[in-house]
Amino acid sequence: MSAAGPESGACPPVCAADVERLAAARVPAEVWDFVAGGSGDESVQAANRAALDRVRLLPRILSGTGEADLSGPLLGSTAAMPAVVAPMAYQRLLHPDGELAAARAAAKAQVPYTICTLSSFPLEDIAAIGGTTWFQLYWSRDRGQVLDLVRRAEGAGCEALVVTVDVPVMGRRLRDMRNGFALPRSVTAANFGAEPLTATHTRQAGASAVATHTGLAFDPALGWGDLAWLRENTTLPLVLKGVLDPRDAARAAELGAAAVVVSNHGGRQFAGAVASITALPSVVDAVAGRCEVLLDSGIRSGTDVLRALACGADGVMYGRPVLWGLAADGEAGAGLVLDLLRTELQEALLLSGCPDLAAARGLAAVLG
């Protein structure tokens, strides 16, 4: 990876944390805060990591296999590993090629890429990269605009709609507020056409311009009736992202959701939320096989993916590390973190005696 620089004599990155350090040195401090920060005191981010580290697995032995098959279905498509690139906004903040570079990396890695409503390239341009794409939907105050985005996603060949359900308002992200963070004029919400100077670009002391824009644009009153309406207006599989309570998971399955994503938004929304992996087993029990279950928030390694599988997940969403890779070295950097995840997962499967993903889901997990 060129980000390390052969002239520096440094070892190339061998894990996501190495890429994180490279990325932090390459982007402006306030952009790094926007990517890295969480809501409130950021304790939910710490809880995600601590909870994942507490999950310890009982490896099996003498499996009789010298290789592991990482591939499997996610919403009907076969992925090379049980991971989806999570929806993340405004990726041109990290690299000029933004979402286009990240989508190319995902396509090469043969994993789905989730296009964000707030992408900084139009969704059609990102989907045209190829590979499997899903479209993440924030619920606009204008239902006509919601339907327009859905039709565009359908027309572009997206294979699922990921409805984010944990952002009635944006959580108080104190780093952004202290920085008075606003987007540079070169970065816009490209799915909404030519943008003049808007709330996203207007600095205000003690406030996040991105949060101001979210409050103006998106409906805080999203409810189950809206999701039922959406179900009636598209044939695409629906994925609900931001589910933690098993009662909500059960209701999503009853509504016909194809999947739920157990997520606390990477610690960026409710500052008192439970760690995602802590909520995972009860959600898996509640849906009882009626829909797929993905885990989001805090995944940093192949061992984390194995932990999620052993706790009942069908796969994971992989977020911030892809942004780190993008910031460090564009498409090559994003591709590197996906390659590292695959390598780590393959090793974790072999070391735990699992020839495939089904065996991984049969591992016993204990709290260490």
UniProtKB/TrEMBL annotation:
Question: Which Pfam family name is an example for this entry?
Answer: FMN_dh
**Which cofactors does this protein require?**
FMN
Q: Has the keyword Flavoprotein been applied to this entry?
A: yes
Recorded source organism is Kitasatospora cystarginea
Protein name listed in UniProt: Alpha-hydroxy acid oxidase
Q: Which residues form the FMN hydroxy acid dehydrogenase domain?
A: 8-368
Which InterPro entries does the protein's record reference? Answer: Aldolase_TIM, Alpha-hydoxy_acid_DH_FMN, FMN-dep_DH, FMN_HAD, FMN_hydac_DH_AS
Keywords, A to Z, come to: Flavoprotein, FMN, Oxidoreductase
